[in-house]
Amino acid sequence: MALERTFSIIKPDAVRRNLIGKIVTKFEEAGLTVIALKKIQMTRAQAEGFYAVHKERPFFGELVEQMIASPVVLQVLEGEGAILKNREVMGATNPANAVEGTIRKEFALSIGENSVHGSDAPETAAEEIKYFFSDDELVG
Ligand code: DAT
Ligand code: MG
């Protein structure tokens, strides 16, 4: 396994419920290291650009509205096999299908308000990190 970096968003539904610490703890306990972290209010343009891959899907409008409803926490996580590890800690997109102990099983409200985003592959991880962070913000 290689040392990887991946991108994570703690979504508005979780930030609003003061779950930042509990979610970061899940990542850290899985062996992921936080090498960048910031809280922002995402703009509509940022959210539409970030989710451009989903723009033809029926839930695109709702997805953008949920992402800009209130602040989010952005992170870059580093570790061995970090991309897959992050996805495992997150759990399935639909919380109804998420395994016990995962973030989405414990905290997600619905398939849309599912508490976290995580990159799904090395290419998207690199793109998503660059979309929100400059190189000098990554402190490995
Ligand atoms: P993931 O966030 O697990 O990578 P995805 O990339 O397929 O899932 O979709 C991005 C987000 O879009 C997902 O976190 C929640 C929303 N979404 C996906 N499928 C949906 C659906 N059928 N109805 C409503 N929202 C959906
Ligand atoms: Mg995805």
UniProtKB/TrEMBL annotation:
GO cellular component: cytoplasm
Enzyme class: transferase
Domain of life: Bacteria
UniProt keyword terms in alphabetical order: ATP-binding, Cytoplasm, Kinase, Magnesium, Metal-binding, Nucleotide metabolism, Nucleotide-binding, Phosphoprotein, Transferase
Location in the cell: Cytoplasm
Residues of the active site: H117 (pros-phosphohistidine intermediate)
Cofactors demanded by this protein: Mg(2+)
Gene3D superfamilies cross-referenced by the UniProt entry: Nucleoside diphosphate kinase-like domain (3.30.70.141)
E.C. number(s) listed in UniProt: 2.7.4.6
Assembly and oligomerization: Homotetramer.
Task of the protein: Major role in the synthesis of nucleoside triphosphates other than ATP. The ATP gamma phosphate is transferred to the NDP beta phosphate via a ping-pong mechanism, using a phosphorylated active-site intermediate.
Protein name from the UniProt record: Nucleoside diphosphate kinase
Protein species of origin: Devosia psychrophila
